Amino acid sequence: MSDSEEHHFESKADAGASKTYPQQAGTVRKNGYIVIKNRPCKIPHVNRTDYQLIDISEDGFVSLLTESGGTKDDLKLPTDETLLTQIKDGFNEGKDLIVTVMSAMGEEQICALKDIGPKN
């Protein structure tokens, strides 16, 4: 080899260290980060609240009874067909229903239903 020869190296790989590591979903903490489709996503603070279902309007909004005795009227019925059917059928049968509402990042959604028996 002569001294005038130049060598050019291209490196497209790192030293093998990963910026992520596998982790069980249940061990991810609030305000932590996960990677979805190669994008970092922050885990939001999620609140869960139970309300008693009072009424279902024709336009798909529900009226819910809060713990303080007031009403919450700004939620729509869920889009999940199974849950939607369970809520409508239970309400039409006159059952007392408790819906679970999850809220995060300024959005709320009905995600579960409990039947606490027939209305008195």
Automatic annotation (TrEMBL):
Among the GO molecular function terms of this UniProt record, one is: ribosome binding
> Gene3D superfamilies from the xrefs?
2.30.30.30, Nucleic acid-binding proteins
Q: Which residues form the signal peptide?
A: none
| Gene Ontology terms describing biological process | positive regulation of translational elongation; positive regulation of translational termination
- Sorted alphabetically, which Pfam families does this protein's record hold? eIF-5a (PF01287)
Residue ranges annotated for the Translation initiation factor 5A C-terminal domain, each copy included: 45-114
Protein family: Belongs to the eIF-5A family.
Q: What is the protein's given name? A: Translation initiation factor 5A C-terminal domain-containing protein
Q: Which organism is it from?
A: Miscanthus lutarioriparius
